Every structure is written in structure tokens, then in C-alpha cells.
Amino acid sequence: MKRMPGRDMVPDFSDELVGRLADAEELAAARVALGRLRKAEREVFTLCVWAGLNYAEAAEALGVPEGTVRSRLSRARTRLRKLTAAEREPPSGGGQLVGDDRANAVRSKQERHS
């Protein structure tokens, strides 16, 4: 037995796979929810959260006051949380709690680092 080569351990990939499936499910729900936002909310969300613009930059890009950007972004986040949660609910009517992690995911870089 000593002369036989040792067996390499194969890593268990099941946890990673489950995580990837959950991420894909959440991303799909977010895409559907994003499509249900009003155009103005979707534009502000995309500029501030995905493109990383600050409020002033987004306001300049859209030609609106900075306060308008802030209020639209706030409404967009609130609606996205609700729509994403509704999209992920099982058909049986059971719900799933929306955690702080999902709420932080819709924060802009500027707000996460303040």
C-alpha cells in the first residue's frame, strides 16, 4: 500500500454551486424588478448605482436638480426592494424576508463609503 500513489482529494463544489444558483435567481428577480421601475427612476438608479456617478454628476447628466436625483433614487430603491421580494416569493404565497444585505446592494458606492 505504501508504494501506491496517494489519492488527491476532490474539492466539494456543491456549496459554490448552490451559491451561484441563488445569485442567478436573485439577479433574474432584480432584472425583472428593474424593468418595472418608472423610466426616470430606472435612469437615476442606473447612473448612481451601476455607473457609480454621484448625485451631482447624475443630476447634470439628466438635466435635473440634485434633490430630484436623491428623491428618485430613494423611490427606486424602495420599489426595487418590494418588487424583487415579490418576484422571489414562492407561488404558494409564502414570503421571504428581505435582509439588510439586499438593501445594501442597492446603495451607490458614494453612500456605502460615507
TrEMBL record:
Residues 30-80 form the RNA polymerase sigma factor 70 region 4 type domain. GO terms for cellular component: DNA-directed RNA polymerase complex. Keywords: DNA-directed RNA polymerase, Sigma factor, Transcription, Transcription regulation. GO terms for molecular function: DNA binding; sigma factor activity. Residues 99-114 have a biased composition (Basic and acidic residues). Residues 81-114 are annotated as: Disordered. One of its GO terms (biological process) is DNA-templated transcription initiation. It comes from the Bacteria. PANTHER family: RNA POLYMERASE ECF-TYPE SIGMA FACTO, RNA POLYMERASE SIGMA FACTOR RFAY-RELATED. Belongs to the sigma-70 factor family. ECF subfamily. This is DNA-directed RNA polymerase specialized sigma24 family protein. It comes from Actinomadura namibiensis.
